[in-house]
Design a protein that fits this description.
By secondary structure, this protein is an all-alpha fold. Among the domains are: 33 residues, no CATH class; 59 residues, no CATH class. 33% of the residues lie in helices and 0% in strands.
C-alpha cells in the first residue's frame, strides 16, 4: 500500500526493459481485469426461463421456479410522482385524455401509450375516476426518496 509519491518514485526509477511482464489473457467471458477463478456457472440459478417453462419436476434447478417483473404500469410517467398531489394531477390528466378518446370510442395519435388492455377498455366503454384516497406511497426505482 504505497503512497502516491512512492509509486511515482518507483515509476521514475524503473526501466521497462528490465521489468518482468506477465501476459494477461481474457477468461472465457472476456474478462481481463481482476482475473479470478469464479464458479458462478456451477451454482444453482436464482431463477431461469428454462426452469419456469419446465414441465418435469426433475428439471427444476433454480431457487425460484416462478418470477415476474413486479409492479408494472407501462405508464410510469402518468402514475408516479414525488408528491401525492402531483400524482393525482398526473392521473387526472391521463384520465382526461383517455376520456376524450373514450367519448369517440376510438384510439388515435395521442400522448397515451395504447396497450391491448387499454384499447379493450376503451372499446368496452369502461372508464375510471381518480381519488386522493387511491394514492399509495411506493418506492419508484432504487435510490428514489420516499416523501
Amino acid at each position: 500500500m504505497e503512497t502516491a509519491e512512492e509509486k511515482l518514485a518507483w515509476l521514475a526509477s524503473a526501466h521497462a526493459s528490465r521489468l518482468a511482464f506477465e501476459e494477461v489473457r481474457p477468461d472465457a467471458k472476456a474478462n481481463w481485469l481482476n482475473l479470478t477463478s469464479n464458479d458462478f456457472d456451477d451454482l444453482i440459478a436464482v431463477a431461469s426461463k428454462d426452469v419456469k417453462a419446465s414441465k418435469k419436476r426433475g428439471d427444476e434447478r433454480a431457487i425460484f421456479k416462478l418470477y415476474g417483473q413486479g409492479v408494472f404500469t407501462g405508464r410510469d410517467e402518468w402514475l408516479y410522482s414525488a408528491t401525492p398531489p402531483e400524482a393525482l394531477q398526473k392521473a387526472d390528466a391521463f384520465l382526461s385524455e383517455f376520456g376524450r378518446w373514450a367519448a369517440q370510442r376510438q384510439f388515435g395519435g395521442s400522448v397515451i401509450k395504447w396497450s391491448r388492455n387499454l384499447k379493450r377498455r376503451l372499446e368496452q366503454g369502461k372508464t375510471e375516476s381518480s381519488s386522493a384516497g387511491l394514492i399509495q406511497l411506493a418506492a419508484y426505482r432504487p435510490f428514489t426518496a420516499l416523501n
